[in-house]
Amino acid sequence: MQPASFGVSTHAGFAASPVDQAAVAAMAASGAPEPAPKTRLPPMARRGRGATTNPKPRFDTLASEPFDDGWSTLQDIADLPPLPTTLTRDASKSVISWNTSPDLGFDRAVNPYRGCEHGCVYCYARPTHAYLGYSPGLDFETRLVFKPDVAALLEKELRKPGYVPRPMALGSNTDPYQPVERTLKLTRSVLEVLEKFGHPLSIVTKSAGVLRDLDILQRLAARGLVRVWLSVTTLDNELARRMEPRAATPARRLAAVTALAQAGIPAGVLAAPMIPGLNDAELEKILAAAARAGARHAGYVLLRLPHELRQMFEAWLQTHYPDRAKHVLALIRETRAGALNDARFHERFAGEGPYANLLSQRFERAARQHGLAERTELETRHFAAPRDTSETTQQLVLL
Q: Which range among 16-20, 69-73, 171-175, 318-322 shows the weakest confidence by mean pLDDT?
């Protein structure tokens, strides 16, 4: 697999800034930057990418599709080199996203990045890229949006009068430790702010890159402020390579769990998503491996396929597992009342019906067997806004 190359661009709704140049310089350290593509990527599988299609965003009123004009142009497209990763600056004025979902264990989250280079084909966050005018397919894993001011904006929001601390989720939408974090370090800047405020947080990632912030995480853990989850979808390297082409190998994720546990940081494993007929038979093996690695808690989520993800996942199955595609889709429908997705609260993560109920029972039994049922609450009593030493504040004090 060739290393990804990077470029930084601007887009309607996003603004350019000097930070963009800093991002380009950072990317240049690991690979020569390339300009961002000016048209939507062709709907064809590419080496090192998860999606095999690039469907138009559901909000687009116009659509186009490749057409062979007799000059073998489609073959020329198929022979193009691996797609580069591009970066676009997000000019959002706030960074905390709030929810009232009864299915989630948190009501607030911070996501330094939109889009994710890990390229997990099943990712439920893919359809959110349509809000930016990008495709949930290949665009999602190649056209990343980053928030250079995420730390400053987060601090501003935490200082608001009446703010009540509860656990902040990192990784609720896209992975906070995807490859670009190695150079931009936006997730680390968020951790620094949360540590300064004594704010509790939880992290979900598929990357061993979380260990780069072990120093901060240890200090947070000593105050009961952090919990880290590693998502382990399969122990089969070949399946992982096809489903999650740029994520860490299953072995590296489990090794990260061990390193976190040895450092005194509460770590858990999410067997997610469980895909009927594809990886669900591994559930007990994943939990057993998690316990051996030092995990203290575990969870699972049944696959859900909202919006464009339905056609994308079906196309991926036909490409990689054509012999079982029909069976897998039939099992998913069995757990989703005959559809490929069920957005109802209390049903969307666990599903319904005999197959889903059996999966739930298997998880509960394995979690108890391996001692992965621990539940600890994160501390909120340490939260306090530190003295604001910014120049603007000091000037107002003098006035």
A: 16-20
Give backbone dihedrals phi and psi of 151, rounded to 5 degrees, phi first: -70, -45
Q: Where are the alpha helices (DSSP H) in the chain?
A: 18-28, 73-78, 138-142, 150-158, 181-184, 186-197, 214-222, 237-243, 250-262, 283-293, 309-320, 325-335, 354-369, 391-398
- As a CATH number, domain 6-59+73-385 is 3.80.30.30
Residue ranges per domain, the chain?
A: 6-59+73-385
pTM of the predicted model as reported, rounded to 2 decimal places = 0.80
309-358 pLDDT per residue, tens: 999 999 999 999 999 999 999 999 999 989 888 878 777 778 999 999 99
| Cα–Cα distance measured from residue 399 to residue 151, given in angstroms and rounded to the nearest whole number | 27
Alpha-carbon radius of gyration of the chain: 22
